[in-house]
Structure formats: structure tokens, C-alpha cells
Write a structure and sequence with these properties.
The protein is an alpha+beta fold. The protein has one domain (7-232): archaeoglobus fulgidus dsm 4304 fold (2-Layer Sandwich), CATH 3.30.2170. The chain is 30% helix and 24% strand. It has an 8-stranded mixed sheet with strand order 3-2-1-4-5-8-7-6, sandwiched between helices. A hairpin with a 5-residue loop joins strand 2 and strand 3 (71-80). It is globular, with a radius of gyration of 17 Å. The chain starts with 14 loop residues before the first helix and ends with a helix. The model has no long low-confidence stretch (mean pLDDT 96). The chain binds 2 DNA strands through strand 1 and helix 2. This is Endonuclease V.
Length: 233
DNA sequence: GCGACAG
DNA sequence: ATCTTGTCGC
């Protein structure tokens, strides 16, 4: 039962159309728990880019992780992006390739951690929301820096602080490692903020970023190198 | 008008 | 996002 949606949700012709599509999608985001029974099998999605690449290639990867933290499945997609990187519209660049990778992933996870913002976005539609809605899958946004909002969590591992923006609580900053910057957690789709923070906490293992995100990052880098090597010959 | 700006 | 070795600190 893949959810149906209009083509401009993935391929808007202009930034103005992308903005309109975000408004349509934002109205459909489910910001509370709507998940299968526990335990949830986690996964993560990330995209790697070749710097200075005039072709704007997108190297996407999604991984499925087991309870022990091992990668049990991985799928990727390398393609020439049809939308440039524009702050606030990252999803239009990354989601198409990620959706293609998702289709080939087996087994698929119940819950996906996405490298980027969820609701902590100027129009409430970060990449995590975008991907979750297009796939119809529960997602959580895990970003390394803020796009909008302010927050200041304490220095101890586990400390949290709300991310506030225009008077709204749009996410939670979580200190995952002492001496390192926090990670910014926000709802993607079909998950409440409390659950999102708890899941990210549980997925951390002493490093700044949760293990699934690191695995996805490594997988995306691997495809990028493979693609670059293949194209060179 | 000016500055900011996930990956 | 990416370019990159060593180096400082716990």
C-alpha cells in the first residue's frame, strides 16, 4: 500500500512550486506515535555528495539495523539530482534518490532515522518529514546543526533542551557525547517527539551520532566512491 | 534592506 | 556535503 501523491511532491519545477508542495505535505504530517508494536527495527538514511560536482550527483543510502547494531540490509541509489541544494528545500534534492533506494531495501526497518531536520524547519517540512510522508513510513529527524530555532542543552550526556522558534517547541537538542555539540532531534512522521528522543537516545553508543546514522553515512560514502571510480573508467 | 541558511 | 594529518586532550 504505497501512499499516492502528486509528482510535484518529488519533482517541483521551481522553488515556488516546491514551497507550495511543502505546505501540502506539512498538513499531512502525523506528529504522534503511529507505529507497529515494539520492538522496532531501526534504519537510517543519508546522502553523500561529491564536492564541486557540476553534475550535482546524489548518492543515497538506507540501512536496516538489527537489535545488536549490525547492518542487516543496505540499499543505495546514485543519480544526477534534478533539484539543487537550497536551504529549506533539501528534501527535493535527496528524497527522490532515497525513495528509490528504499524500494530495493529488504528487510525494511519499522522506523527510520534521517540525517537532517524534521519539523524543526521554517515551514514544518524538513527532509525527515518529506521522506516519511512520501514513503508512508515513521521517521525521525536527526540533525547536526540548526536550520531555525535556538536551544542550549546542558553539558552532561543525556541533557536535553527544547528547540524554540517563534514561541513553538519544534524539537529537542540532545547531548549525546561530552564535549561535542548536541544533536537536534525533531519529529519526522508518525512519531511523537518524546518517542523520537527516546529512540535516538537508545541508538547512541558513546559517539556523537546514533549508530544507524553513522552506518548510513558510511554506506552513502561507499556508494559515492564506487560511482566515482566507475565513472572514471 | 540585511543577514542566515539542514546536507 | 566535501577537501585532509597530525595533534591535543581525556
Amino acid at each position: 500500500m504505497t501512499p499516492q501523491f502528486p509528482p510535484h511532491w518529488l519533482h517541483p519545477g521551481t522553488v515556488a512550486q516546491a514551497r507550495a508542495a511543502q505546505a501540502e505535505m506539512a498538513a499531512r504530517i502525523v506528529a504522534h506515535d503511529d507505529l507497529p508494536p515494539r520492538p522496532w527495527r531501526l534504519g537510517a538514511a543519508d546522502v553523500s555528495n561529491t564536492r564541486f560536482d557540476p553534475l550535482r550527483r546524489v548518492h543515497a543510502a538506507i540501512v536496516t539495523i538489527d537489535a545488536a547494531g549490525a547492518v542487516v540490509a543496505q540499499a543505495d541509489e546514485s543519480r544526477v539530482g534534478d533539484f539543487p541544494y537550497v536551504p529549506g528545500y533539501l528534501g527535493f534534492r535527496e528524497v527522490p534518490a532515497l525513495a528509490a533506494a528504499w524500494a530495493r531495501l529488504d528487510p525494511k526497518p519499522d522506523l527510520l532515522l534521517v540525517d537532517g531536520q524534521g519539523l524543526a524547519h521554517p515551514r514544518g517540512l524538513g527532509t525527515a518529514c518529506h521522506l516519511g510522508l512520501v514513503l508512508g513510513v515513521p521517521t525521525i529527524g536527526v540533525a547536526k546543526s540548526l536550520l531555525v530555532g535556538t536551544t542550549e542543552p546542558g553539558p552532561a550526556v543525556g541533557d536535553v533542551a527544547p528547540i524554540l522558534w517563534k514561541g513553538a517547541h519544534i524539537g529537542t537538542a540532545l547531548r549525546t557525547r561530552h564535549g561535542a555539540g548536541p544533536v537536534y532531534v525533531s519529529v519526522g512522521h508518525r512519531v511523537g517527539l518524546d518517542t523520537a528522543v527516546a529512540v535516538v537516545r537508545a541508538a547512541c553508543d558513546g559517539r556523537r551520532l546514533p549508530l544507524p546514522i553513522r552506518a548510513a553515512h558510511a554506506a552513502a560514502n561507499a556508494v559515492r566512491r564506487a560511482q566515482e571510480a566507475a565513472r572514471a573508467t
